[in-house]
Amino acid sequence: MLKRGELRRLNILEGSVSSGKTWISLVLWALWVACGPEDAGYIMVAKTITSLRRNVLMLLESLVGARNFTVSLTQKEARLFGRLVFLEGASDARAENKIRGMTLRGAYCDEITLFSEDFFNMLLSRLRVEGAKLIGTTNPDNPNHWLMENYLKRADKLDLLTVNFTIDDNTFLPREYVKNLKKEFSGMFYERFILGKWVLADGLVYGMFKPEYVSEEVPRILEYYVGIDYGQSNATVFLLAGLGEDERLYIIDEYYHNGKKEQSPKSPYAYANDFIEWVRGNDVSRLGCIYYDPSALGFRAQLAELGVGGLKAANNDVLCGIQIISAMFDKGLIRISPRCKHFVDEIYGYAWDTKSAKVGKDKPCKENDHVMDAFRYLVMGKFSYWKNRLGS
Ligand SMILES: Nc1ncnc2c1ncn2[C@@H]1O[C@H](COP(=O)(O)OP(=O)(O)OP(=O)(O)O)[C@@H](O)[C@H]1O
Ligand SMILES: [Mg+2]
């Protein structure tokens, strides 16, 4: 518990998901603003205005009541205990310019690791009133992230208070909810989002993959779908997957052609015909959606021209995809046919990029990642289904 007088210039609450960081930081923020001068500058920032509304403003309203907190998203302004509060999305290209001229007494920041360092520095330079403060929250990230390197690690030099939270600190959550939430994370994601640790994305991306997941056995398939990673100068991959009646994901067949390596480049038309042939050859009864690489618009058009339906641009949120797949492997929810040789080869070499890790970014190596990308697309296509399945 914070004692009187302990708030510093910068106050960052960091740790696992649902640990109460936003709740506690908003109580601090609301009381502090309510006790401050009425004519000072205040701002609340999240990555986007939409995430600010969803993660922060709604909770703040429920904490202090609608009489004490009103919001106009179109004006990007709110009133908190009568004090004017600007609202901003840090990822908005104009946001940095907008705050450039401000003089602020207080800033509330949600999920600071998602801000650019430039934006954060600019915000700090605007906190130029005597006694100005920043109150913010974040989940742990890469230990080389700028927020850790340049701020949290230097807390004693910067008049910065950090408080670390783990999910078990939040005793207000139902036990069952916490138990299910823990199942949604595995490996590095578990350490960060459940244990609240700043750990490196290191080694194999799917280190939890086990050889016994490669299996010939396939139960009755309820629905089929496909993931496509298209490359003109790289490999093109089609992956056929099915939802088994045992509620597992079965990777049933793969198509792989690397025009560059095999020195036989193919036109988009030829690839689209290969696709049709390949699906036909698999004798699929109910083909659901086809999730394609969202940058492959030309190939999408080519498939559509040949009458292929059910095409959907894939969600390409890499970390979110890796996170859910890791948890699915951990829970034994994925099986791969031994026919998918490139899949198995790739997964054993699919590693985090050490160069990116050194500069605080989590990225898998870009080499030999085409099957892994197609795989991620098709899992993300049924994201809600798999998330519920993990929590059950
Ligand atoms: N002191 C509290 N009293 C009552 N409910 C609380 C308290 N702290 C947290 N909660 C509830 O617990 C849930 C999670 O809290 P909160 O949103 O603050 O977590 P968080 O650490 O910000 O999570 P995330 O990292 O996912 O943003 C919320 O629904 C909130 O209402
Ligand atoms: Mg939060």
Structure description:
With 392 residues, the chain is an alpha/beta fold. The chain folds into two domains: 163 residues, P-loop containing nucleotide triphosphate hydrolases (Rossmann fold, 3-Layer(aba) Sandwich), CATH 3.40.50.300; 181 residues, 2-Layer Sandwich (Nucleotidyltransferase, domain 5). It is built from 15 helices and 14 strands. The strands form two sheets. An eight-stranded mixed sheet has the order 3-4-5-2-6-7-1-8. It has a six-stranded mixed sheet with strand order 13-12-9-10-11-14. A hairpin with a 4-residue loop joins strand 3 and strand 4. It is elongated, with a radius of gyration of 24 Å. The two termini are 34 Å apart. The model has no long low-confidence stretch (mean pLDDT 94). Bound molecules: adenosine-5'-triphosphate and magnesium ion (MG). Adenosine-5'-triphosphate binds next to helix 1. The site of adenosine-5'-triphosphate (ATP) has 12 residues, from helix 1.
CA-CA gap between termini: 34 Å
CATH architecture heading of the largest domain = 2-Layer Sandwich
Strand order of the largest sheet: 3-4-5-2-6-7-1-8
Topology as a string of helices (H) and strands (E): EHEHEEEHEHEHHEHHEEEHEHEHEHHHH
Poorly predicted ranges: none
**Would you report the number of β strands?**
14
Average pLDDT across residues? 94
Sketch the major β-sheet.
Answer: 8 strands, mixed
